[in-house]
Amino acid sequence: MSDTEDRLLMLIDDEPAQIRLVSALAAREGWRTVVARDSETAIAMLGTRQGMRLGAIILDQWVPGDEACQLISELKARRPALPILMLTTSASPLLAVEAMRAGATDYLIKPVAPDRLVSALRAATAPEIQSADQNSELHPLTEKLGAALDFDSMIGAASSFRTALAIAAKAARTHAHVLIEGEHGTGKEMLVRAMHAASPRAKLPLRLINAGGIPPNQIESVLFGHEKGAFAGAFDRHVGALQHADGGTLVIDEIDRLPLSVQARLIQFIDRGDVQPIGARHSFRLDVRMVVCSNAPLKDLVEGGLFDAELLAKLATNQVRVPSLRERPGDIPALARHFLARIGEQPGLRPLGITDGALALLGAYDWPGNVRQLQATLFRAAVFCDGEALTAQDFPRLANMVGDTVRIQQPISDGAGVVLFGPDGNLRPLEDIEADVIRLAIGHYRGRMTEVARRLGIGRSTLYRKLSELGIDNAA
Fold it and tell me: Which of 137, 234, 320, 452 has the lowest CB atom count within 10 Å?
């Protein structure tokens, strides 16, 4: 249905509040929602004139009647091409596997964020693989697959990635604020957690908020708190995230989405070290380290008048740029094997290998959703794989996007985290290999520079000279 006015969504749910929420969010995207409060009504509706015009279905797991997966199977049997999204409170990978095998297109965990629901609807009904995989709701599941929270577990040998880890590991040992920039899905949150685990504040509070998921008129209260009666609707006192993080670390994701007025208040907090909740007559003295993340380069936003230059200067004492996956395609084989090993440990799944042909296909795609998209794509493929290893045939949509230009490339890494050979098959210059070894050592020893120098067998002054040559001497 190309005409957005004709898009019709069936919501199978019996919870009034959720019906109102989903209907309102879908309406923003041009969907008109019809509600079926039980499975019998939903099945009957498929055969009506209105049902024949449906563009998608959202199903609540707890809908009365048939079990959700059985209902999904029946709906798909009657309308195979109709996308079905399942709403659930469970983050169980087993339930996700069962739902997908029954025919679910996507899997949304309640309470679902508005932008997540909207992106899932877009993905389910868009023919392009970029949309369908980049915004996949599987990432809340795949990110729970026992990821270790240290630098040793960060997979990648590309020099740009090792540089980012080296700067982050060195910065983790300080109390200074940190700015992490990188596209959506590059692994910024995992890097934040690795930094926290290696920091002097590791045993103190870690508070995470996503500025992009909070309405602009509420973000000031979320950060700074408010007193009862401070504004219309303030029925109770609220303690802000900064106060909750006292002594520890506050992570603000998508800081580029903060209103300028709230940015100004953050500058005051950094300068003075105290917070005054909205409506309060007093302030609190706090000790909070801020680690902020942005999907977009903040320098560009400053030039466009969308971000405060003074706040950028204060936050960027330590600045880390996480490269996109398309900037480090040589890391895809190691990442794929790592993800498949973790996926294979989940209930309902099993360990799988991956063929050279499949790896060549993965390497030929540019991954707009980065590492998160790769992880979700592998999860989907593993769910439906009947063999012992994933092949190129297990990624049919990806193959359609890439075309017939895939060729198997020779691996360029020795598997230990240092790239020895260049794309032309020749050894890289010794200076470049040495630089990668130093980056690897800084990440491995979590920024403890004395230990790094000792293990490398060089003096600290020599190490810092080499750091300057690497361009990471500003990682205070």
Answer: 234
pTM: 0.72
Around Cβ 432, how many Cβ atoms within 10 Å? 15
Contacts of 296 (CB under 8 A, 6+ apart): 181, 256
Distance (Å, whole) CA 254 – CA 245: 18
Question: Residue 220: what pLDDT?
Answer: 93
Instruction: Give how far Cα 391 sits from Cα of 192, 372, 388, Å.
Output: 34, 20, 9
E strand or H helix at 169, and its extent? helix 159-172
Count of alpha carbons within 13 Å of 436, Cβ hemisphere only? 20
Query: What residue has token string 């709230």?
Result: 262
CA distances from 310 to 6, 224, 253, 303, 317 (A): 48, 20, 19, 12, 12
Cross-strand bridge partners of residue 421: 427
Average pLDDT over residues 49-71: 80
Q: Does 102 share its domain with 165?
A: no
Give me the number of domains the chain comprises: 2
- Strand 54-60 to 84-88 pairing: parallel
Q: Phi/psi at 248 (nearest 5 deg)?
A: -115, -135
Residues 54 and 9 sit within 8 Å (Cβ to Cβ)? yes
Angle at 174 between CA 171 and CA 179, to 5 degrees: 45
Mean pLDDT over residues 148-174, rounded?
A: 84
Both tokens assigned to 428:
């890289």
**Two structure tokens written together for 389:** 């290893």
Cβ neighbours of residue 268 closer than 8 Å, sequence gap 6 or more: none
Position of tokens 């409170």?
89
Last residue of a domain, one of 321, 349, 382: 321
C-alpha to C-alpha distance for 132 and 130, rounded to whole angstroms: 6
pLDDT tops 60 at residue 133: no
Q: Which of 239, 211, 214 is nearest to 224 (CA)?
A: 239
Range of the domain at 184: 159-321
> Residue 180 in 3-state DSSP?
strand
Strand pairing class (178-181; 289-294): parallel
Q: Supply the CATH number for residue 174's domain.
A: 3.40.50.300
Pairwise CA distance, residues 399 & 116, whole Å: 26
